[in-house]
Design goal:
Radius of gyration: 23 Å
Distance between the termini: 66 Å
Number of strands: 20
């Protein structure tokens, strides 16, 4: 089926720093960073080209799900410029001028937050996104083991330092940057002489347009409906599906891969929705992780622990569950937690839909049961949730790092006895997996230290961990056992404190 039979559109166009711009000549796979720099906006820099350093950060006006706009910081090195068709972008040049600095730029300069300046534009954009966050207020108290920002990481002005977790600086040092962040007040009131960027937050974000960009290196399309996307995929089973592009973007920048056809699915309504029902929660495959955290972080505690440990805020503002599951990486962060939650996936194609338990989704290293003409539509989490949950990720860095091993637990207790047990593991086999032997060792038994120790000995034997540069097989096994023992110790302490 010809793409033009399904879609019609013009070359992408954008609003950049308040001015209309056309995509113009250039490859269909052009990243936002390359497009900006080739058009004279060189504040954004390429540091790592894989979303690790934040030197490329820019702001995009995105819907806030309340009818307004959220200025959202993203890594421009990973995003196809064509995927921003119809959108509003701000770079560091658009925030202020040398004669009229933006409050964030003024704070950075005043605190001495910049030396060589290479990373500064990216820091400023990430800082501006947090500056305009509407619910920024006094720091909230959060569980110490949640993985979320602790009070010491949240300033007296409510500034969450995790907003800068994806930005690296190699010469200034982080203290003056933190001081600048903590010195920021609220944006000026919305009035004629106030902040136009703050005023912009009260108006709807631009709607995404159906896009068709054809170039010699490939074709980029944005389908308006699930049916269109499924029909395109059926006719072109080798097409690349793009939502957040935090994984595909690395393939483009680091491995020089090019997609003959890329299909953007990030704003298809069914894929960009969260539906909380009495018997289950349905999360669209293209909902950004930051949005999942905002909506479900408190309602689903296991996700509330997982998501703050998933890469950085810059990545989470684009990354999706569908993408993380679709890559089928054995060290992906979301599969262990979703396995513990007994999640199921809805796979959609032009022929219809089918539901697959996540425990049956992975078939081998980076392979799944998803057919070439199918896409992940949504993730289903059954209700009610287990009462005792925990997510443990072991990595060399506390945040923004790939896990060496990960374990997620969802335990249901009745009268001190374990009635239902689900444990998901990552980093110990060619696929994420359920720790079924350990589940059997726990089910029906009292939740005592003796039970936990006996089950921990079983958990050490789960999977087939290997030695590599991140960790040894022995270390990975030991960390699994420790995670279960820690869960028991933490839950016992909490119970004693409540009694």
């Amino acid at each position: 089926m010809d793409n033009n039979e399904l879609l019609a559109g013009t070359d992408p166009a954008f609003t950049v720093n308040g001015a209309p711009r056309q995509f113009g000549p250039g490859p269909a796979n052009t990243t936002a960073l390359d497009w900006l720099r080739s058009n004279g906006l060189t504040g954004a820099k390429e540091g790592c080209a894989e979303g690790e350093c934040g030197a490329c950060a820019i702001l995009v006006a995105q819907p806030d799900r309340h009818g307004g706009t959220a200025w959202t910081a993203v890594n421009s090195c990973l995003i196809p410029m064509a995927s921003l068709d119809g959108q509003e972008l701000l770079t560091a040049e658009g925030l202020g001028t040398p004669g009229s600095l933006h409050p964030v730029q003024e704070a950075m300069a005043g605190a001495g937050g910049s030396q060589c300046g290479y990373c500064t534009p990216g820091f400023v954009c990430s800082m501006a996104a947090e500056y305009y966050r509407p619910d920024r207020g006094a720091p909230a108290q959060r569980p110490a083991d949640s993985g979320a920002a602790q009070p010491s990481e949240t300033g007296p002005n409510g500034f969450d330092l995790h907003a800068l977790s994806g930005n690296l600086c190699r010469c200034t040092g982080y203290r003056p940057i933190r001081d600048a962040a903590f010195s920021l007040g609220r944006p000026p009131a919305v009035k004629p002489d106030g902040d136009p960027l703050a005023a912009r937050c009260g108006s709807p974000a631009p709607a995404l347009r159906t896009t068709l960009l054809e170039r010699g290196d490939g074709v980029f399309v944005r389908a308006a409906t699930l049916e269109q996307a499924a029909s395109l995929l059926a006719a072109n089973p080798g097409a690349v599906l793009v939502a957040g592009s935090t994984d595909w973007g690395v393939e483009v920048t680091i491995r020089a891969r090019r997609a003959p056809l890329a299909i953007a699915i990030d704003r298809i309504p069914e894929l960009d929705a969260i539906d909380v029902r009495e018997d289950e929660i349905e999360i669209g495959a293209a909902v950004p992780l930051s949005e999942i955290e905002r909506v479900l972080g408190a309602r689903v505690p296991l996700l509330g622990q997982l998501i703050p440990q998933f890469a950085s805020r810059l990545i989470r503002n684009r990354a999706t569950l569908g993408g993380n599951l679709g890559t089928a990486s054995p060290i992906g962060d979301s599969p262990p937690a979703l396995l513990a939650l007994d999640a199921r996936l809805i796979l959609a194609s032009a022929a219809g839909e089918r539901t697959v338990p996540l425990s049956e989704f992975f078939t081998g290293y980076r392979s799944t049961v998803r057919a070439a003409d199918e896409l992940i539509k949504s993730v289903l989490i059954p209700m009610p949730l287990a009462g005792l949950t925990a997510f443990h990720k072991v990595a060399k860095r506390r945040f923004d790092d790939i896990s060496s091993v990960a374990a997620a637990f969802a335990l249901t207790l009745d009268g001190g006895r374990l009635t239902r047990v689900r444990i998901g593991l990552g980093g110990v086999a060619a696929t994420p997996l359920r720790a079924r032997a350990t589940e059997d060792a726990l089910a029906g038994r009292p939740w005592t230290r003796e039970t936990a120790e006996a089950a921990a000995a079983v958990l050490e034997t789960e999977g087939t961990p290997m030695d590599d540069h991140r960790a040894s097989a022995r270390y990975r096994s030991a960390m699994l056992a420790n995670a279960l023992l820690k869960l028991h110790a933490d839950s016992t302490q909490k119970q004693e404190e409540q009694s």
